[in-house]
Amino acid sequence: MKSRIIALSAILVLLLATSSGVANPGGKGDSNRDYTCGGSCHGDPSLSSTSTAIIDVEISSTAYSSTATEISVSISNLDTSDNGLVGIFLLGSKNGNDDHPEDHGWTIIQDPNGGLSNYVEVVSSDNQVTVSWVLLAPSDIGTKEIYVSIHHGSYYNHNNKAFIGETEGITVNIDSIPENYPTLAEGWTSPEERISGDSSTIKIRTVNTESLMVYWRLSGETRSHEATVEMVADQEWEVSLPATLGDTRIEYQMVASMGDFSNTMPWLSMGTSEPYFDGTSLGANLQSIAFALIILGFMVSLQSWFAPRGVKKIIDNTAEVEKSMIENNESSASELDDKYWSRLIKSEENPGWLWDPIENEWVADPAVSSGGDE
Amino acid sequence: MMFMTAFHHLVVGLVAGSGVIMGICAILVWLSSYISNLESSKTTLDRAAYVASIFTMVVIPLAIISGNFSSTNSGGAIFYNKFLFSGIALGFSASYFVGRVRFGPELWNHSSLANLQMISALFALTSIMILGSIGSKITLGESTLDIFPFWPDFMNSIVINQWFSLLLVIFGLISVVISLRSSTIKFSLND
């Protein structure tokens, strides 16, 4: 009976705890996710509601297999929470599992935040947001569908519900790639970011490409500039893009050509990261102790330097003490000698010898040069 | 380590408090030679600065140790600077303490030594203020010293090779020992 009460109490406590929780109002970050995060909290109709947002998707209705294509998503009429955060999914299906576009043959070359995720979180501005993914179309020929889903909070949201919006399937016909069509090599992805101030080249791998032109611009600019491109191996190119600093994002667009064919690819972007800091905790501690000791040594030296002159001489009487000790020793030794010799008695029977009545022994007389046994 | 984070915040507060007492009192003692109104408080201020310097020397190493294990230590340049300024503050606080022990309270009667003590205390105080400002930058993202137009960029730091730092530690130790041995006789300036 007691154990049942404990078990029931535990269940009750857990149930009460769930009602007071709010599912990640600050977002969970970009990642690869299935529809409604795999049917988790937001998939529950009691915890979610339909979003009023309008989702527009732009993608070419026909794409050549294994070529780069862009999907642009514009969301308007958004009613978000204070932080304006919106989560956007790009999906190949809406099953709740295996919904990632890569499960349906697509390859993400770049997501809207510069990464390679099918789910991104962005902050809306003026109740709207526009993002785009760059994808490599599936290699299978035929019809493919792609979906966009969103979730967000709301300013007036007393029930802490998630607001879900989604599109119907957008059909894309995948055609066979024309012979010798210049495009990117399968598996190539755009670098996410470069270290601040790094001007090293970017490697690009292509197929069927005779010449490659690359244009770059800074994020927000409309005017583009041509970058220097060098072919380093067969279908391998090195592109020199200017170094960026701070939070700058640089965008670049490739135009691959082969004979009469020219393939203008979508704009890709690359962020800037802080330079790598190579200081360690141990190094910091050692350097800190070194600074402390050097400062202390320097200041102590200065103290000695500024100490008033002559003080040391006044205090240090070692020489005088040593001198007086030697003098005392010398005088006491001579007094002892006098007492000793005065107590010795001369003997007629033993010339050259003196009798010590205290020690009861004969002592050679220093006044007689030859004494003793002779 | 939650405990270390809370303990670090506590110790940092103690460093700031004792450092400010040491710095302000030392400056006031130094000023008492020039401002007659402060003459009567000279002994009290000197003792307060002396005790505060001892306390500062105890709590700065504690702040460094707890900072090592604190969850706010993400290992960036700004944290590296925190360690460096802790070392500088410790060096100047120790210099103040050693000077006071060696020469006694009469050092304030000798202008050169008094100036040196005041500089030690002032530099220790400045280092502690910079330390506090870096801490504020980390936790709040801003500090009151941001009003200065010349405020240095603490997102970068001077990193010395670890072996070279170890060499500097040995060099520092030797220099301290030599400096102290060159004037080992403890004497009072009254004699």
| C-alpha-based Rg of chain B, rounded | 18 Å
Q: What's the helix-strand series of chain B?
A: HHHHH
Largest sheet of chain A: 7 strands, mixed
Order of helices and strands of chain A: HHEEEEEEEEEEEEEEEEEEEEEHHHEEE
Shape of chain B: globular
Classify the beta-strand content of chain A into a percent band. Answer: 25-35%
Topology record:
The complex is a heterodimer of chains A (374) and B (191).
Chain A: H1 2-19, H2 36-39, E1 48-50, E2 54-59, E3 62-64, E4 68-76, E5 85-91, E6 107-110, E7 119-123, E8 129-136, E9 142-152, E10 162-166, E11 170-175, E12 183-184, E13 193-195, E14 202-207, E15 211-218, E16 225-226, E17 228-233, E18 236-240, E19 250-258, E20 261-264, E21 268-273, H3 281-306, H4 311-315, H5 318-342, E22 345-346, E23 353-356, E24 361-364
Chain B: H1 2-32, H2 42-69, H3 77-103, H4 111-140, H5 162-181
Helix pairs in contact in B: 1-2, 1-4, 2-3, 3-4
